[in-house]
Amino acid sequence: MEWLLDGLLVLALVVTAVAALWSRNLFRAVVVFIAFGVLMAVAWVRLQAPDIALAEAAIGAGLTGVLLLDAVSHLASKRPRVQKQEGGSR
């Protein structure tokens, strides 16, 4: 039964890693990256390394995730807005 849990954990890690890399939406990529960090912390717990799991959860998912979300919000506010032109070309 433990091998099934470990297999699902590995599959979830691979899926979230691929989803974070291939996502075209930056916000979605950061959220998936945070989910990857949480899953990685669970993997470290399964490997009986609680100190590394705590560091991964705090730094990998927590601090890095917050910093990346802040960076995405700054990018979104700096992006120029495309205005629609009325009528034909001038």
SSE succession: HHH
Mean pLDDT: 89
Gyration radius over CA: 19 Å
Taken from the alpha-carbon principal axes, the silhouette is elongated
Continuous helix count: 3
Task: State the secondary-structure class.
Answer: mainly alpha
Low-pLDDT regions:
none
Between the first and last Cα atoms, what is the distance in angstroms? 70 Å
Sheet bearing the most strands, described?
none
Query: How many beta strands in the DSSP annotation?
Result: 0
Helix content range? over 70%
- Percentage of β-strand residues: under 5%
Task: Walk me through this protein's architecture.
The chain is mainly alpha-helical. It has a domain at 24-77. Helix content is 79%, strand content 0%. It is elongated, with a radius of gyration of 19 Å. The N and C termini lie far apart (70 Å). The model has no long low-confidence stretch (mean pLDDT 89). This is DUF4040 domain-containing protein.
What is the compact description of this entry?
The chain is mainly alpha-helical and 90 residues long.
Question: Which helices and strands, and how do they pair?
Answer:
Elements: H1 2-22, H2 26-46, H3 50-78
Helix pairs in contact: 1-2, 2-3
Main traits of this protein?
90 residues; mainly alpha; 3 helices; DUF4040 domain-containing protein
